[in-house]
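PROTEIN DESIGN WORKSHEET
SECTION A - STRUCTURE
LENGTH: 364
TOKENS:
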């Protein structure tokens, strides 16, 4: 039996406003990688979109500071060959081969990573890629499209209105007649609560829409849902498993960026959530149904509200959920009996299984 280790390219950083969060997540993925089975190839992407090879050490500045963490090594620019079956990391000149890659493991939250971009590169290069493919990533990333798809399948979502840069409406009264005065404004294609605002007045509303449109060409305006914030981690491909559910109890009203990454006391994470067996079963079933219907693969965190009469409403999904030391996805699996090292290993195996399945299809 061959003892050759699988070379796993952990890709992190990126051009997204969630750049710093990606660095925090990459720390945990790197630490949790089973080095007896896998050889890490660390590929960082700076904020200008340039890829760098970090060899086998994760060099970061201000590692414990979520607001100021940054890449330390940005002096070794490289390219990944997109040629099928040519899994090489080359120098920026494209002539010298520095490493080979067996599996791509993107830890890129938000745009230019979680939206299908890197998944497309992996498909062109015929590389196994951890997590969702192009379609699941793109649909899961765009909250507007995700809601349309789920709604068409009878899965409940919060009522919303979509505003675009080119057609931005100022008809606040019409929107509040439809959704109420307590509103959430979110960039359609970002996560980690970046650019998200809660508004109760017209002045706050217009400021929030303007702020949200700085991050995306469209924002969604959602009604406020009164309910408990429940999160469930899903793992698998065609027949996924769901973790025990957890509950987020924000200190200041909603689970903001600061609560998630800057203030460890900004929210209480209850794992497991205080739910009945029947409620747990319903949460897990809806999480898996959402995962399957959105063509997800590998991993996804499904966030939902538990309202009166046990009604569940999908809030959003995260196809590359946070992997920081306080992130819900790995914590939910830890409490479900799957420690982080085993979780990372399983994600790589799922990527390889999905890749083999896709490559079994006839091309001509």
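SECTION B - SEQUENCE
RESIDUE ASSIGNMENT:
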């Amino acid at each position: 039996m061959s003892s050759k280790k699988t070379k796993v390219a952990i890709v992190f950083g990126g051009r997204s406003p969630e750049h710093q969060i990606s660095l925090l997540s990459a720390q945990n993925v790197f630490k949790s990688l089973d080095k007896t089975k896998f050889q890490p190839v660390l590929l960082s992407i700076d904020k200008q979109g340039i890829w760098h090879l970090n060899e086998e050490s994760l060099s970061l500045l201000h590692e414990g500071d979520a607001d100021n963490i940054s890449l330390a090594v940005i002096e070794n620019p490289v390219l990944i060959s997109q040629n099928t079956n040519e899994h090489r990391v080359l120098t920026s000149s494209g002539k010298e081969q520095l490493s080979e890659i067996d599996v791509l493991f993107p830890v890129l939250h938000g745009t230019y990573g979680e939206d299908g971009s890197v998944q497309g590169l992996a498909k062109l290069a015929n590389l196994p890629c951890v997590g969702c493919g192009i379609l699941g990533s793109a649909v899961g990333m765009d909250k507007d499209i995700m809601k349309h798809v789920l709604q068409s399948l009878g899965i409940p979502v919060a009522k919303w209105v979509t505003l675009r840069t080119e057609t931005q409406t100022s008809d606040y009264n019409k929107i509040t007649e439809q959704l109420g005065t307590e509103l959430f404004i979110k960039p359609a294609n970002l996560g980690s609560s970046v650019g998200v605002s809660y508004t109760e007045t017209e002045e706050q509303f217009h400021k929030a829409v303007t702020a949200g449109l700085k991050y995306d060409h469209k924002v969604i305006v959602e009604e406020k849902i009164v309910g408990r914030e429940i999160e469930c981690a899903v793992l698998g491909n065609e027949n996924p498993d769901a973790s025990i559910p957890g509950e987020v109890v924000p200190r200041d009203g909603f689970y903001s960026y600061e609560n998630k990454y800057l203030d460890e006391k900004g929210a209480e994470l209850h794992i497991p959530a205080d739910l009945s067996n029947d409620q747990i079963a319903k949460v897990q079933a809806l999480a898996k149904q959402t995962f399957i219907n959105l063509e997800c693969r590998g991993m996804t965190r499904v966030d939902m509200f538990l309202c009166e009469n046990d009604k569940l409403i999908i809030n959003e999904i995260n196809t590359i959920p946070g992997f920081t030391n306080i992130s819900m996805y790995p914590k939910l699996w830890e409490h479900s009996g799957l420690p982080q090292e085993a979780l990372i290993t399983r994600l790589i195996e799922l990527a390889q299984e999905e890749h083999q399945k896709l490559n079994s299809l006839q091309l001509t």
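SECTION C - NOTES
Residues 160-223 form a domain with the Dna Ligase; domain 1 fold (CATH 3.30.1490.20).
Residues 130 and 351 are 5 Å apart (CA to CA).
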